[in-house]
Amino acid sequence: MNRFQKYFGKLKKNKTSDIKVVVLCVIAATTFWVLNALNKDNYVTVVDYPIAFQYNAEEYMAIEDLPSEIRIEINGNGWDLFRKYFKFNVTPFNIELTNPDERNYLLSSEYRRNLAEILEPTSLVAVLTDSLKFDFDRIVEHETEIVLDTGGMTLAPHHQFGGDLSWDPATVVLKGAESKVAELGEELVLTLEETDIEDDFDQYVPLILPERYHSLVSVTPKTVHVQFEVVAFLEGNKRLKLKKVNFPENVTLDNELNSVLMTYRVDEREVQSLRELELEAVVDYRKRNREDSTVVLEVKGMPDYITSVEVEPNTFKLLYAEP
After folding, report:
1. Which domain holds residue 207?
2. How many domains does the chain have?
């Protein structure tokens, strides 16, 4: 049994070695054939040849992606075609555009001769790309006005603006493709989206153009200084003397009070002013509701810095004495 195992083991080792030799011979033969074939002339193939556009980049810009290749059919030596097919050390074909905004295409007949020259010693058989299409715009600068959009911004509860909103600069300069600058128009909207603001606002807010303009239009400066004051309205209460006006002698109120209680919110900057303020709660008989014999109380001399005013009671029933 051991003798058979030794025999077949040697046979297996010899077989593996023979396979390796065969594989190496095939690789060597294939390599020799390929190298020999590449040395021959008069091959024809189709390649995608790299191109580059030359133009005045200070005056013009492309608003669509430019073609980067053209498909051509070429004839020549195997090694030369191999190098061009796989783009080994291939210099792109430069296409010069003088006034690129005046037309948006280039026919193959217009650049065929120059292309054939740079392909030598390879021969150009045909240009399979009929025409090259592109879209250029002249570069312009335009001053546009900044408009503040506060629609998405909120103040904290019981807070209000303490004055006008201000921003600097009031205008910015847009630079880029003429058609895209025109699309942005005469106003550039600066959106504030902060919420629950309770302190004075003093920030440099970035100007962000819609994404589709990012590579086509630039804005200078890139930030706007926005400022505004925010004031809190504080809760308070105050007792007011009740004053009756134009009442006949035979008319009284169902609730003969000397004073009423007013609750309110006051601008935090005007607390001291409120302390010094004399307010009156007036019930005017001439302003009565004749249908239900009631009269509503009015607070006279109420300044703008007081809000959310409520008076209790604020409506009185009129009582008429019999003659």
Report:
1. 138-228
2. 4
